[in-house]
Amino acid sequence: MAKKTDSPSRIADNKKAAYNYFFEERHEAGMVLHGWEVKALREGKVQLTDGYVVIKDGELFLIGCQINPLRTASTHVSPDAARTKKLLLHKEEIKRLIGKVEQKGYTLVPLNLHWKNGLVKAEIALAKGKGEHDKRDTIKDREGKREVERAMKSRNR
């Protein structure tokens, strides 16, 4: 009997999100997927960079997430790589997110996809867009950390 692990394993990350947004709060949502999509996720055939979350009729949907079908996909299935995927959250959480998103400047962005107890979960964040000066600060901080790591590495040799 296979033992389920509690530690989530990453499928894909949206690295661009941390550069473009400040994160206010994070949520973990389930995803409604087809069988071929799950198989493609196991192979890592996913791109999350251009994805965003919209709210329609009190439900959350992930748009722009590309899950590329495997070459061995069944012939009777017509895979659509850019299909809109429904996200699953509790009603109270969705209502609270709707209220926050209606405020000026807030949006919902996907941060990553990961496995949790054999299920695919999406981590989404309530985010506020960064201005150009904030992005420059992010780049400056990142380069500073790299220089410190290089100096420490050369010092330890």
List the keywords.
single chain; 157 residues; alpha+beta; Small Protein B, Chain: A; seven-stranded antiparallel beta sheet; two-stranded antiparallel sheet; 4 helices; globular; SsrA-bd_prot_CS; RNA binding; SsrA-bd_prot; RNA-binding; cytoplasm
Description:
With 157 residues, the chain is of the alpha+beta class. The chain has a single domain, classed as Small protein B (Small Protein B, Chain: A). It has four helices and nine strands; from the N terminus they run βαβαβββββαββα. The chain has a seven-stranded antiparallel sheet. Strand 4 (52-56) and strand 5 form a beta hairpin. The model has no long low-confidence stretch (mean pLDDT 83).
Q: Which residues sit in consecutive blocks of at least 5 with pLDDT less than 50?
A: none
- Largest sheet composition: 7 strands, antiparallel
CATH topology: Small Protein B, Chain: A
Radius of gyration (Å) = 18 Å
User: What is the subunit organization of this protein?
Assistant: single chain
Number of helices: 4
Helix content: 25-40%
Number of domains: 1
Order of helices and strands: EHEHEEEEEHEEH
Q: Span from first to last CA? A: 47 Å
Subcellular location: Cytoplasm
Region (Disordered): 130-157
GO cellular component, one term: cytosol
Keywords: Cytoplasm, RNA-binding
Give the topology, please.
Elements (H helix, E strand, L loop, with lengths): L8 E5 L1 H6 E11 L3 H8 L3 E2 L4 E5 L2 E5 L2 E2 L17 E4 L2 H11 L4 E11 L2 E11 L2 H25 L1
Antiparallel strand pairs: 1-8, 2-7, 2-9, 3-6, 4-5, 5-7, 8-9
Keywords: Cytoplasm, RNA-binding
GO molecular function: RNA binding
Pfam family, one: SmpB
